[in-house]
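Worked problem 6 (solution included).
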Amino acid sequence: MEQGLHIPLVYNTGGYDALPTLQLLDGIIDIYMPDIKFGDDELGRRYTGAPRYFTVVRQAVREMHRQVGDLVVNEQGLAVRGLLVRHLVLPQDQARTSAVLEFIAREISPHTLVNIMDQYYPAHRAHHYSELSRRVTRDEYARARKLAQQYGLRRIC
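Solution. The predicted structure is:
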């Protein structure tokens, strides 16, 4: 057995990645960890200034999954290869969670590991948007988890 350190190379990203960049990483990255912040182009533009936000993210995540597939965990419980998608639930469904989860389940894989996060905290320029001026409620978070299950996603954390 070879000696040395053998760890997977992880690409932690906001998800808004250019396809040519991702294609250059094919065969290099072991684990992709993109965020999918918004399931709507207009909301992505409004809150982040990113044109065609959801359109670009969908293309990027498709490419990431093509390269590494669903997340594989070894006997020790450590991730070794694959895709792990993070999604932050926002107040008043400003993230369009249903569209995000439907995309993952239907166009990526129902076996995708999805981290549905509830830790949104209004900071920085959130006070400019009344709809983002509060934390996520328990009911909003529970609704997001239920939607994931309804779309057939079972690997939810």
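Discussion: The helical segments are 19-24, 41-48, 53-68, 97-108, 138-150.
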